[in-house]
Design brief:
Length: 369
């Protein structure tokens, strides 16, 4: 709890005021809320139950929604209460750690952002302390003059929702870069760890899909079921743009999920192709050495030519050994020529097959894009 930071931005036509409220100074919130025409209270990090309900008392927030703040990992949703609304949003983490071994994204990709808004206030609770993706919203309030400061709470809600959705695009871009790296490793280095890396990335893609799908539905519910006095028609135009961006995010997630499946197919095809080439080379080598082995086996039989003229008279020839080697070599050369004439030696190198697989995958990726 020591890292939790409570910040207040009070603004209106007369200007903007920022203040940090200590945890033991929550009693001052009532005065700040009454004095400001618009107030945004942001809690960056977890709070004790009593402190959460104390803030809820100041802004008259529904106890059920406050329970959702305390029990994180809620599905993205929108709730319409009497005098205020509640949004639970999965917000991407700003700092993404890397794993030194697999070089993949960390397992936790998002945190819960609980958002309350009424006619003249916005209250946000963040699951983790230490930064968020809402810095553009703060900068807009500070430097955008009277345009943003004269707006009502619904406009600030739009800015926050838009910032959350925009933060997903760099995350999906990072996932895409890692998928491209796995593709290059499969095609160029035959990375045997590729299946594990693909499964880690696919699991992250599925996690993002589970976050973005209900997020899209929550925005759609906000557009459809919200009270007109809390969200104006001019703000709904901007929220529809957020809804379109959420649909685009879903398209990107689906593309990455299909790409994960294609990469696994590529790895299996590449491994099978290499195994087939190895078996083909070994079979050719075995076939080439069958005639010399046959001849050497005959010459290794222990028949004494002195006992009978039919008992391997070749052992007494002057040039028997060179002739045997020449016959063996001629048979091997003849087999090589016959295999080449049949076309069995084509495609021994895996480079052609790898290029063919790579071209096929590139076509699939192009179709997905």
């Amino acid at each position: 709890m020591t890292d939790t930071r409570i910040s207040v931005i009070a603004f209106g036509s007369d200007g903007l005021q920022e203040e940090t409220v200590p945890l033991d100074g929550l009693d001052r919130l009532s005065g700040l809320a009454e004095a400001a025409s618009m107030i945004w209270l942001n809690v960056d990090g977890p709070l004790p139950r009593d402190s959460v309900f104390q803030i809820g008392t100041v802004f008259k927030l529904h106890p059920l929604a406050l329970e959702d703040v305390l029990h994180v990992r809620q599905r993205a949703k929108f709730e319409d209460y009497d005098k205020h609304n509640f949004l639970a949003l999965p917000m991407p983490l700003v700092q993404l750690e890397r794993r030194s071994a697999e070089d993949e994204l960390q397992s936790t990709l998002t945190e819960q952002l609980s958002l309350f808004f009424g006619s003249n206030f916005v209250v946000t609770f963040q699951e983790f302390p230490g930064g968020d993706c809402l810095a553009p919203v703060r900068e807009k309030l500070r430097h955008d003059g009277r345009h943003s400061r004269n707006q009502k709470a619904d406009h600030l809600v739009y800015l926050i929702v838009d910032a959350v959705i925009d933060a997903y695009f760099p995350l999906l871009e990072a996932l895409g870069e890692r998928l491209e790296g796995v593709e290059e490793d499969i095609l160029n280095r035959h990375d045997q760890k590729a299946p594990g890396r693909i499964y880690v990335l696919k699991r992250n893609v599925i996690k993002l899909r589970r976050c973005i799908w209900p997020l899209r539905e929550a925005i759609h519910t906000l557009l459809r079921d919200v009270q007109p006095e809390l969200v104006r028609d001019e703000t709904k135009v901007y929220l529809r743009d957020c809804y379109d961006h959420a649909i685009r995010l879903l398209d990107l997630v689906e593309m990455d999920r299909e790409l994960c499946s294609d990469l696994m197919d590529l790895h299996l095809s590449s491994s099978s192709n290499r195994m087939n080439e190895v078996m083909k080379v070994l079979a050719i080598i075995t076939t080439l050495f069958i005639p010399p082995t046959f001849i050497a086996g005959i010459y290794g039989m222990n028949f004494n030519p002195e006992k009978s003229p039919w008992n391997m008279p070749e052992l007494n020839w002057l040039y028997g050994y060179p002739v045997a080697l020449l016959v063996m070599t001629s048979l091997m050369g003849g087999l090589l020529f016959w295999m080449h004439w049949k076309g069995w030696l084509k495609g021994i190198s895996s480079a052609g097959s790898e290029r063919s697989i790579k071209r096929s995958l590139k076509r699939k990726i192009g179709n997905l894009k």
